Amino acid sequence: MSASIALLPGDGIGPEVVAAATRVLDTVGEFTYAEHPVGGAAIDAAGTPLPSDTLAACRASDAVLLGAVGGPKWDSTDPRAPRPEQGLLGLRRELGLFANLRPVRPLPALYDASPLRRDRIEGTDLVVVRELTGGLYFGDRGRNGDRAHDTCVYTVAEIERITRTAFRTARSRVTSVDKANVLETSRLWRETVMRVHGEEFPNVELEHLLVDNAAMQLVNAPRHFDVILTENMFGDILSDEAAMLTGSIGMLPSASVGEPGRPGVFEPVHGSAPDIAGSGAANPLAAILSAALLLRHGLGMEAEAAAIESAVDRALDAGLRTADLGGSATTAEATEAVLANLE
Predict the structure, then answer these.
(1) Residue range 207-221: average pLDDT?
(2) Residue 44 annotated in active site
(3) Which residue in the list 112, 125, 150, 212 is annotated as catalytic?
């Protein structure tokens, strides 16, 4: 019986890169797909960024592959206006996706594309584990006259479960990032991480970094990191910084997962890039690598995931370069290069 995958192409280049990823998936397994709107496309079609039919389809699937959401068409400072990003936040909340995993491994073929020197990034292989359903993004917010507020709240249970995910992901070290010298939520975070480490994972090294220092060390010594564990907003910022170690945010996949047995959402880190949508210039590799994460973390198909990742590596070693990597390969040409290395 084939696995069911809900496709949420979304906005901008989302439909193009999702189409490329499904072509690659079809070479390594049998899957059934059902496509549904999310983000700006869903606002246009149904007046909401996450229609109930889309959510129901995602809940009933084995995994969800998402393209990208957002664009200037839906930008607004009106707090009452629906925003494409609300579709993502709602999906994470409703599916219980509390952990975002972002692997960052600059490929040797692209070392020279990074803004950092080769000797700084060589050998970097890290994962950012970001708490995804708590903190500022989900706390109480509002305006009262000339004042506005956003509330950051965390519970011990929320911190415990993301901490366990980080330690299970680590090979040797977890770097927990917080702002415990200022924020009370960070002090609770640090206390909880230390306790879970001592009680459940004493054989894995644990270190603590303040978020400003962590931002500096990501640039200064990225090889030092194995797993970076942090809360929602810090993780949002640090994972995008880490993505640039690879030379292009167009290369980075991500996985958003919850408890075992529940469908995860797998998506490229890049945005919707409306300026190149429809031109055939989008880099599909992050979406293809997200499909590999879907196989590994969503369906337990490790060999097939590794085969896709190896095919991407070999295509780049052979000279594949899309526009964001300094080349001229189109979306279609990049997809064909990966498929050729799979065959």
Answers:
(1) 97
(2) no
(3) 212
